[in-house]
Amino acid sequence: MAPRLPGRVVPLVRRGDRPVCVLLPGAGGGLNPYLRLAAVLAPTHNVCVVRAAGLVPTEAPEESIDQMAEAALAALDADGLAPAAVFGWSLGGAVAWEICVRLADRGSRPDLVLVDASPLPRDSTAEDDTRIRETIVAMLGPRPEPDTVDRVRRVFDAQVAALAVYRSERGYPGRVLLLMCTDDEFTFRPRAERRWRELAPDLRAGRLDAGHFEVLEAEHLPQLTERIVPFLDPATQEAVR
After folding, report:
1. CA 16 – CA 220 distance, rounded (Å)
2. To the nearest whole number, what is the mean pLDDT of the chain?
3. Fewest Cβ atoms closer than 10 Å to its Cβ: which of 113, 140, 186, 221?
4. What is the C-alpha separation between 174 and 18, in angstroms, rounded?
């Protein structure tokens, strides 16, 4: 009998019947950066991650942002999960946006947090992509399995190709928190923020004094969570309603 593949939805916090916060990972699909964030959200939310396709044997990476969003939503549906909040960093922000747009079509408007993400086609060079890909591989630790490294590289290549042709065309009427980093790694941020404002009528925006690849590290996590936690606090939202 062939081994059973892990599911796409990975629970990080599950304690009774509470609002569900869904996390979408950045390019390469690594889940480790979200473990600390899940612990911060644990007092108020059940938390899960939708892992990228292609990170386990026999799986192929998805080739478009739409395909990633459709597959993630199908996986959430299969597990009976109705997100109250969706969080996406980097590529995960584009996927999170498309998930929320589709949920709005169903009459649901989860709160959406976007961190250093863009709704516009990604500009890059082969040199830039190689450097970023190897930065992500380095996050796997000192001695990752060669097969794991190969899969991460393959997933990354498929994802950045998808970002190169992605442009969000549909608005989202729900609450949106947009947080952009302030390092010099990327130049897309001013254009991206203008476009997000066009697409999201109920948008709040802020800055994070951290680099794109460091924003979820322990040193910088407090400034991220001090923005996110009040935005997602169910008690606060209930008072507003």
Report:
1. 30
2. 89
3. 140
4. 20
pLDDT of residue 130: 84
Q: Collapsing DSSP states into helix, strand and coil, what is residue 213? A: coil
pLDDT, tens digit (0-9, with 9 covering 90-100), for 99-145: 999 999 999 999 999 999 999 999 877 888 888 888 887 777 778 78
Structural contact between residues 102 and 69, judged by C-beta atoms closer than 8 angstroms: yes
Q: What count of other Cβ atoms lies within 10 Å of the Cβ of residue 42?
A: 16
E strands along 65-194, which residues? 85-89, 111-115, 176-181
> Angle 65-164-185 (CA atoms, 0-180°, nearest 5)?
110
Phi, psi of 182 (to 5 degrees): -125, 15
Q: What pLDDT is stored for residue 219 in this prediction? A: 93
Amino acid residing at 19? P
Q: Assign 115 to helix, strand or coil.
A: strand
What backbone phi and psi angles, to 5 degrees, belong to 21? -110, 125
| Pairing label, strands 85-89, 9-13 | unpaired
